[in-house]
């Protein structure tokens, strides 16, 4: 049943919610109870002044009765239905369900949203608990301290005759270890307090660099003007960034910013804008026009995407071992923080065929199941040398798509949080199955 | 002189506590605190029992054990591993590397003593 033919159902629902009898409402708006009954059973169309009067008495907007608040609700109900495993909801009656049972429909929508939110938190926590090196080290430290304290305390409590020198030494050890245990547990608690927050507790220099880049939204206006760029003091800039707390992070940040500055020199913003207008996202053509590598094009276009393109683009870079080195995430395409990523990403396929760019549409598994156009290429790093095997970095640019192709292969974030069944690439069980 | 136990562990207060307990029980205890040259230290010391921590600076206890097992079988050199990670996969990895006994931290002194006696007696 179409949404606009359910006005009567909504009136009946709202009237019941307001605790009014049918005859009461009919009298208030000056129609017979039997006519209102026909309206409420969607057997008479209603509009104009009568609809406005009924809405006024029921204390709602007329549009709520004529169109319902269901447009967004129905879209979410469809999402919820798509995520169902065994239940087979009657999709052809979804409008009728939302119209006749708005309270129940709202409950389904609310539950669906809550499940999605909880799944995101579960994914973050699982990733952290199973792969976070900081957490593993902290737990090891705590257990080591507990072991030392337990052994020492037992010696003091259970040894009948103990030399004063040993006794004193063990008491000192006990004091030291209990203080270290207190410090370790405090650090652990403060770390776990922020466990659900993806941005909390940066654990590696690369993460600090990513946090700094994200704080600037990957945009550095200083690099866009050639004169400003050459005069720009990278060292001073990096030293002033609060996210960069370690020496290693500051060194990495200088390297990353040097690369962005070089990219900006090779592909000036105004030229990129003009080429994009002519070529669109034809990366091969863009690389040819500027005479640069594909990785340069990927980095530069991604950095400028927020201001030059209708939609922001994402970028992931890995080395030959598959370790993710740089992540500019994009909504709907989750990139794991600690664990290894999905082996089906074109990023990794590119490593098997260096210098041969790959374009592949993918659908990301999960509740949202969004579609993306991925462009990946692996390029050698450093200058080539005779008889030396080159090392490769792989780059993947991620562009969101409006609609997925039916044949687009599914990819996930990492196995632990991927619901995909019968995946040949699975390394470990999913917490979502 | 009692039989010799070599303890390779990087936490000084655990070294002190275990050394004290075992010495009181009549064992000759030698200690070492890093993984870099642990294999050579074991080969030189030829202990009756090796107590080996998993997480050591320089080289992990598992790597050390794998190298030792190339020349010394479980009957020739009993090895007890200490770890703060009690997960099944860690235990499996240790067993695969040739460990005789796997002990998860925190353990009691009585457990430690009993395990040492059993391993050397067997």
Main sheet: strand order of chain B: 2-1-3-4-5
> Per CATH, which architecture of chain B?
3-Layer(aba) Sandwich
Distance between the termini of chain A: 35 Å
Q: Give the N-terminus to C-terminus distance of chain B in angstroms.
A: 19 Å
Q: Which ranges of chain A are low-confidence, i.e. pLDDT below 50, for 5 or more consecutive residues? A: none
Helix content of chain B: 40-55%
Principal-axes shape call of chain A: extended
CATH class label of the domain at 311-433 in chain A: Alpha Beta
What Rg of chain B, in angstroms, do the CA atoms define? 13 Å
Q: How much is the radius of gyration of chain A in Å? A: 30 Å
Name the helicity range of chain A: 40-55%
Strand content of chain A: 5-15%
Structural class of chain A: alpha+beta
Quaternary state of the chains: heterodimer
SSE run of chain B = EHEHEHEHEH
Name the chain pair with the biggest interface and residue counts per chain: A-B, 21 and 19 residues
Q: Which key phrases capture this entry?
A:
heterodimer, A: 433 residues, alpha+beta, 434 Repressor (Amino-terminal Domain), Beta-Lactamase, six-stranded mixed sheet, 6 strands, extended, B: 122 residues, alpha/beta, Rossmann fold, five-stranded parallel sheet, 5 helices, globular
